[in-house]
Amino acid sequence: MKKILLMLVALIATSFSAMAEDIYIVAGSEELCGTVWDGTDLNNKMTDNGDGTYSKTFTNVAVMNGYQFKVVKNSEEWYGDEADNNITFNVTTACDVTITFNATTFKSTVTGTGVQAYVFNVEKVVAVGNGVGAWLNGANWDVNADANKMTQVADKVYEIAFDNVPVDEGYMVKFVTNGSWADNFGGIFEASGKESDAMYNSGNITFNLEKAGTVTLRLDLSKFDYATRTGAKFVVTLPGSEPAELTYFMKHPWGGGDWTWKPMVKNTDKKFAMLDGDGEVAEYGWIVNGKWGDEGVNINTKEDDTNSKRISNPQTNFNPQFGEDCRFFYFPEIQDFVIVIPERWAKVETSFDPAPGEYTGPLTVRVKCQNLPGEISNIKYFFNDKVNDQVLYDDAKGIVLTETTQLGAFVFLTDGGAFTVVGKYVITKLSGINDITTTANTKAQKVIENGQVLIIKDGKKYNLLGNQVK
């Protein structure tokens, strides 16, 4: 009886062991995997290396830009990069390509003698969709249809128009770059003429046409950030629905005089625009110059009190004095409010030096101020939109960034005034999922340990000053 029980226990343990085995498969581009994003293809099953990592080697991979993949666990869980996007790489010379996945950190690396990191660079943009007749010149999901190549009308802004498009439902389109699906933009159509988010490698833009005529497409990549795959915008303008040019008027007792209307103009200065969390413009708003009358304002799209909006307590910055020259800003889209700034303060220039952007770390950043109407009391920094977690730094020395950071700073003046500076810094480092390695021997390696950047050479560790760390 004892022997039978032991055998049963052994069988049950074996059964549970078999059930617990995880299967990892590489799914991606057909040119790499032989199938199109198939998370069940056992031909692409990864090998368990016994150390918590799994790997798959593809032999003699051809030269191509924009290979993409994700790692799929048990046909259900898909792992891409840190933002869950597809992992992309180039092959510059035919070679064997090995993909290694760490099942603990969920990070992948790609190695091979011809492997190269992918760089997003737009050479052309083509409108691609369910083309028929005049719509998309009859090209049906053709990423290389020259007739649908969009015209660059400004820096990283592309447009194309299609005439005589008939009334119908279910028109679909996406924007494809460089003749490959590796980088494409879709999104949700909200309204004709309305700027909407162009989502990276997302679903089709779908709309209906109730009136025949010209359909105009616009893609704006000027603020697209490849690291986060965000910031792109698109506009679809349908026939007969082009929005009328909008304008605003403001009524105020300018300098204590009679309440009178003044026309506002579009603000074009980013310094006075409404910014989002990444320091990019969310809304420019409208502006009018006038003397502060120490009262509220009325807003309307015409010089008329009928249906005008009353804002009794506009936000005032830097204590404008009665009768002082000021700038009045109105932001109707984001929060629908008014800000009043004295002219003496409007001339202040605050920025980061160097400017936000992509750099190889570590990077020293300082705040630069010009035309200040007072003396600086102190400067406090905050990180990744955590405005309440401010840290006081000696700005003469600056602050050192070693990783990608959404940086912000408050410049406090002795008289109580304050200015804000924000911007995103993308810091390149050798560790992490975005690193592409090769089989070539390296003489030194940069790593980050406990928040410190170290250089490893010949088995020894050194800090950035060249001192050995033991």
Percent range of helical residues? under 10%
Oligomer: single chain
The geometry reads as: flat
Total helices: the number is 3
| Largest sheet features | 10 strands, antiparallel
What features would you describe in this structure?
The protein has 470 residues and is mainly beta. The protein contains three helices and 42 strands. The strands form nine sheets. Strands 10, 11, 12, 13, 14, 15, 16, 17, 18 and 19 form a ten-stranded antiparallel beta sheet that branches. Strands 1, 4, 5, 6 and 9 form a five-stranded antiparallel beta sheet that branches. It is flat, with a radius of gyration of 29 Å. The model is unreliable at 1-18 and 431-440 (pLDDT under 50).
In short:
By secondary structure, the chain is mainly β. Helices cover 6% and strands 47% of the residues.
Record keyword descriptors for this entry.
10-stranded antiparallel beta sheet, 5-stranded antiparallel beta sheet, 3 helices, mainly beta, 470 residues, disordered N terminus, 42 strands
